[in-house]
Amino acid sequence: DAGVTQSPTHLIKTRGQQVTLRCSPISGHKSVSWYQQVLGQGPQFIFQYYEKEERGRGNFPDRFSARQFPNYSSELNVNALLLGDSALYLCASSLGQGAETQYFGPGTRLLVL
Amino acid sequence: GESVGLHLPTLSVQEGDNSIINCAYSNSASDYFIWYKQESGKGPQFIIDIRSNMDKRQGQRVTVLLNKTVKHLSLQIAATQPGDSAVYFCAENMGRNDMRFGAGTRLTVKP
């Protein structure tokens, strides 16, 4: 079975631009969470979506938004990119929305110049 | 705010020895904890989890211990191998679907 997949693997943008990152969860998983991992730190929670609705949000500005589609895949959008948005963006999927194991994808490496 | 932390940022062990990675947490309401392994350039990989109604759980070569009295979590790796070299994170369920990660411990296994 395929694990969590993310695209693209790498991305270079300039300040002020917008970016869309994509995630496909493990088959059968209905929950997708997004995390930002800055180099040398642990992942920071951004969003969780379950059954196409936002179920949790971390301490990130409104420039960050996401959505989940009927097939449970998800997109993370970041507007007005800042240099500090450079990070590894991780997607994790789980069966439900509660305290369950989250399985991570390989991430998208975003560099903002 | 309450957060997960790690006692040691780096750990170096000899191949074949046992490794112990520690983690302190301060949210007494956390009910679920996970250990992840992250290799360079990859996403975190699930190792083992434990719920707050347990104090020990064993997997293949790994054991997680939970001490709720002192809010301490540890990961024990038996017979450490070079392939175990990675950064290890503990994460706690903060509720509201927010998994909070520590900063990580880098484990280096010397041949």
Structural class of chain A: mainly beta
Shape of chain A: globular
* Unreliable runs of chain A: none
Task: Give unreliable regions of chain B as ranges.
Answer: none
Tell me the series of helices and strands of chain A, N- to C-terminal.
EEEEEEEEEEE
Termini separation of chain B comes to 41 Å
Our estimate of the beta-strand percent of chain A is over 45%
Number of β-strand runs of chain A: 11
Structural class designation of chain B: mainly beta
Number of helical runs of chain A? 0
Main sheet of chain B? 6 strands, mixed
How many E-type strands of chain B?
11
Share of helix among residues of chain A? under 10%
* Rg of chain A: 13 Å
What count of helical segments of chain B does DSSP give? 0
Strand content of chain B: over 45%
Radius of gyration of chain B: 13 Å
Oligomer: heterodimer
Order of helices and strands of chain B: EEEEEEEEEEE
The average pLDDT score of chain B comes to 89
Share of residues in helices of chain B: under 10%
List keywords for this structure.
heterodimer; A: 113 residues; mainly beta; 7-stranded mixed sheet; 50% strand; globular; B: 111 residues; 6-stranded mixed sheet; 5-stranded antiparallel sheet
